[in-house]
């Protein structure tokens, strides 16, 4: 985009940049742009497709799998834990308390505690005096052993150390210091020689190769890599703009080719047809259905009333035939009831 906006002028190196940078930048950006645009378009298409699949397929599928996992794995284990394992654990805990804890407490209280008290009494009354006596005897024996060891072992050892071993050790140390000085001098001479040989044969040639070959080549490669990175970012942004434009173009084409014709057909054709069908067919049919329903309901209610009156009359006739006329009943009232039942029928 920067190349299109700026006017065409001779390539002049900006401040801090050489001619090599300017010569590398334009070809690298052109090549990277040609390579990156298809990749960016494919990437944007994959992103749109992934969002569509996520909203329409993956998310409902995930919800269904989550519900299925709960139904298959979680809820059975929860029911097993609540209704089987917890009561079983409580029963086992009660059984363990009855079979283990209570006997253990009784054993500790009625067996181990008396034994402990007896052991304390034995330690205080028997073992302590015997221990004191044995300690006194042992102290005497230890004093005798210490006196014998001092005059039989320590005093002769000190005399041998002072009169024999110390002079021999001093002489050996002096000899060792001389040998160490000699070895150090030899090693220093060999080290200096190896240092100069290594410096002349390896370090100086390597330093020259590094300074006059590798550093210039590294600078050139760094410039190429930097410009390639800048070109890649520039091409990625330009490809994003192109992808956005292509997406908008496809969206506009889809709208005018599919959405707008469907909307026009819905508004101009289907909606008037639906209103016509509703006004000419559905509403009269519904009104006729409501009228028929009201007539059927009225006839049904009349038939049910007549049936109830007939049942009451039959029940009254059976009661009179089996039990006779009830006391205090008057023929006038019975006649009125019969006339009312006949009128209702």
Mean pLDDT: 80
State the helix count. Answer: 3
* Helix/strand/pairing category: mainly alpha
**Proportion in β-strands:** under 5%
- Would you identify the regions where 5 or more consecutive residues have pLDDT less than 50? 1-16
Overall domain count: 1
Radius of gyration: 57 Å
Shape: flat
Order of SSEs: HHH
What characterizes the major β-sheet?
Answer: none
Looking at how many chains there are and whether they match, the oligomeric state comes to: single chain
- Tell how many strands the DSSP assignment holds: 0
Intertermini distance:
98 Å
Assign a percent range to the helix content: over 70%
Keywords: Membrane, Transmembrane, Transmembrane helix
Transmembrane segments: 20-43, 64-85, 91-112, 133-159, 179-197, 238-258
Biased composition (Basic residues): 335-345
Organism: Streptomyces haneummycinicus
Task: Summarize this structure briefly.
Keywords: Membrane, Transmembrane, Transmembrane helix. The protein has helices spanning 2-5, 19-323, 331-344.
Task: Please give a handful of descriptors for the protein shown.
0% strand, mainly alpha, 345 residues, disordered N terminus, 94% helix
Structure characterization notes:
This protein has three helices and no strands. The chain is an all-alpha fold. The longest helix has 305 residues, at 19-323. The radius of gyration is 57 Å and the shape is flat. The two termini are 98 Å apart. Residues 324-345 are annotated as: Disordered. Keywords: Membrane, Transmembrane, Transmembrane helix.
